[in-house]
Amino acid sequence: MTTAAEQCRCCIVGGGPAGMMLGFLLARAGIDVVVIEKHADFLRDFRGDTVHPSTLELMHELGLLDEFLKLPHEKVARVTGLVGEAPITIADFSHLPAHCRFIAFMPQWDFLDFLADHAKTYPAFRLRMECEATELLRDGERITGVRARAPEGEIELRADLVVAADGRHSILREEAGLAVEDFGAPMDALWMRLSRRPDDQEQPLGRFGAGEIFVMLNRGDYFQCALIIPKGGLDKLKEQGLEAVRARIAALAPFVADRVGELKSWDDLKLLVVKVDRLREWARPGLLCIGDAAHAMSPIGGVGINLAIQDAVAAANLLWEPLRGRTLAIDHLKAVQRRRELPVRLMQAVQVAVQNRIISTTLGLQAQPSLPWQGKLLNAVPFLRRIPARIMGLGFRPEHVRTPDVRASRPTPPAP
Fold it and tell me: Across the chain, which distance is largest between two alpha carbons, in Å?
């Protein structure tokens, strides 16, 4: 069988938030880019759906914010919780130095379709769906492209740069032999849907009980919920039976007690195996890993997709000129890691601390928890809520769009 071959400056593997944003920004700068995505569409449930102020700020810089906010979404200006019977406000976004002082809960497929539709208006952009990368192509030590399965058969995509944006189970980072540091996680998450009624009042996002944690995200006509369980605890939960799960949820959130019957089988619950890891090196000659392929994040704070998008913006800022001039070298790729590694390390350190000090402790409790002194302080001094809001909403080093738009006459903004 003959293998078809294609050429491009940049081949991005993975049509998630990092891959689509990088593809859009490079095409917008006039770089010939192909994004390949193994699925036929973006319609998959329980993916990261939190669009944080840092990402909304990028939409403003791209001139797309007003259009973007016309997509269906729910706004959250404060992150609240319930510890035992004590309410707590953890973060207040209303004071952030950003155009949007809230988190937008939006189906990820809408977000990805939005990016794809705008990227397709640039002739340098190509999106190939149902195209799955199977191995890297090499010329000596240099990565020169990928081999992939497509509907028409096997293809080879030759490129000056291959970007692995194929998630925490990245085939490409494994193929490249990149070493991974695993920081562990004491929990997994069972995601599910429960219906939301028009008369339902605003609910806390997190509920902490005796050995129990339950998360509820308002998605308009339903709640996207997560029952946090000890790592590897699904089999034990299944031994107890689905009715025991329904009873646990009803005890944590009594107002949905008459809805837990909507969970009719284990197929209605989707397991997220929580991982926190990071590559020691993000690049090889001709290859760069970004997003979850470079650093898997815990779901704590919902920051994962926003960090991935920040990676994409930084990569576009640093690489578009070497790609255009065909001068791309390993030092350019290492510069992306140098730019992004510190904010990733800091965010993962925060997540690991929350996992170990709060999540793990709560899951081990036999009695109802009481509000710790840190929670009492946040309730007593509202100003302090700005600190977690800043960390969650903007991160430790928010990126800004520095790439040009080939359709615009204005010059590229100077770097800060």
Answer: 70
What is 1-44+107-182+277-355's CATH topology?
FAD/NAD(P)-binding domain (3.50.50)
Which two structure tokens, joined as six digits, stand for 22? Answer: 């990088």
The pLDDT of residue 2? 47
pTM: 0.93
Check: CB of residue 297 under 8 Å from CB of residue 46: no
Q: Say which residue, 218 or 286, is predicted with more confidence.
A: 286
CB burial of residue 65 (10 Å; 0-12, 13-18, 19+): middle
Domain spanning 187-230+233-272, CATH class: alpha beta
Sign, Cα dihedral of 257, 263, 265, 266: negative
Run of H or E including 156: strand 153-164
What is the dihedral sign for C-alpha 333, 338, 343, 349? Answer: positive
The H-assigned helical ranges of 155-223 are 171-175
Whether 187-230+233-272 and 1-44+107-182+277-355 are alike in CATH topology: the answer is no
Q: What does the chain come to in residues?
A: 416
Tens of pLDDT, residues 145-183: 999 999 989 999 999 999 999 998 899 999 999 999 999
The position carrying tokens 């990028």 is: 58
Q: Are 323 and 11 within 8 A, CB to CB?
A: no
The encoded tokens of residue 48 equal: 């990261």
Domain locations in the chain as residue ranges: 1-44+107-182+277-355, 187-230+233-272
Instruction: Give the DSSP H/E element, type plus range, for residue 350.
Output: helix 330-354
**What mean pLDDT do residues 389-399 have?**
95
